[in-house]
Design goal:
Number of helices: 5
Largest sheet: 6 strands, parallel
Number of domains: 2
Order of helices and strands: HEHEEEEHEHEEH
Number of strands: 8
CATH topology of the largest domain: Rossmann fold
Distance between the termini: 9 Å
Bound molecules: zinc ion
Shape: elongated
CATH class of the largest domain: Alpha Beta
CATH superfamily of the largest domain: TPP-binding domain
Structural class: alpha/beta
Oligomer: single chain
Radius of gyration: 18 Å
Strand order of the largest sheet: 3-2-1-6-7-8
Helix content: 25-40%
Strand content: 15-25%
């Protein structure tokens, strides 16, 4: 398909590549999501890229994509935190016996925005890496691929991406979503909406 071919050409040509991943990439919606992450990795591994995802299932960190180039500000359900937030500690899967907080004995919960008291220390180091990387894209030939990001948490990817496109005159964005591919008028010159499910779109890339 024409759009797929154009995106492949633009990936090859760009200096910087920013990818936003949203709810169309949840494992519960796409059971073979690892195949798609591996496909992305093959396409972009030579590029200077950064990925920001709102998906919290932790699947992306099991892929061969570089963890140093990924930020998941909504958290990761496989990382555990105290449900009472008695400590800011965050544990990796299996580190704590019985999923019980070793300090206060409260049950553990996923370190995500769904937690009653989300411990943000889990994502902040990679968030800082992301903002630093993003600052370095100004006036660079930046390609933005926004994949399946709706309006669940628009302040994380959707709105900031629109701002980035409007500020960087050398940028170009594709917003691919099965339902919400619309674009604000101000950025239409440099952005294109593709009304297709983004994981399916990538499957046939
Ligand atoms: Zn605790």
């Amino acid at each position: 398909m024409v759009e797929q071919r154009r995106i492949l050409e633009e990936i090859a040509a760009c200096d910087k590549l920013l990818i936003g991943i949203g709810e169309e990439w949840k494992k519960e919606a796409v059971p073979d999501i690892q195949n798609l992450y591996e496909k992305i990795d093959k396409l972009i591994k030579e590029k200077d890229y950064f990925i920001i995802t709102t998906v919290t299932d932790g699947e992306i960190l099991k892929s061969s994509l570089e963890p140093g180039r990924i930020t998941a500000p909504c958290g990761n359900v496989t990382w555990r935190q105290c449900s009472k937030s008695c400590t800011k500690n965050i544990w990796e899967p299996g580190e704590v016996a019985d999923d019980i907080c070793p300090y206060c004995k409260a049950p553990m919960t996923g370190n995500t925005i769904e937690a009653e008291n989300y411990i943000e220390e889990g994502y902040l180091p990679q968030w800082n890496a992301y903002t630093g990387w993003l600052a370095g894209t100004l006036n660079k030939n930046l390609l933005i691929l926004e994949l399946g990001v709706g309006f669940g948490t628009p302040t994380v990817i959707r709105w900031p991406f629109e701002k980035t496109v409007s500020v960087n005159r050398k940028s170009r964005m594709y917003r691919i979503h099965g339902t919400f591919a619309q674009l604000p008028e101000e950025i239409k010159e440099r952005a294109e909406g593709i009304l297709e499910n983004s994981s399916e779109f990538f499957r046939y890339l």
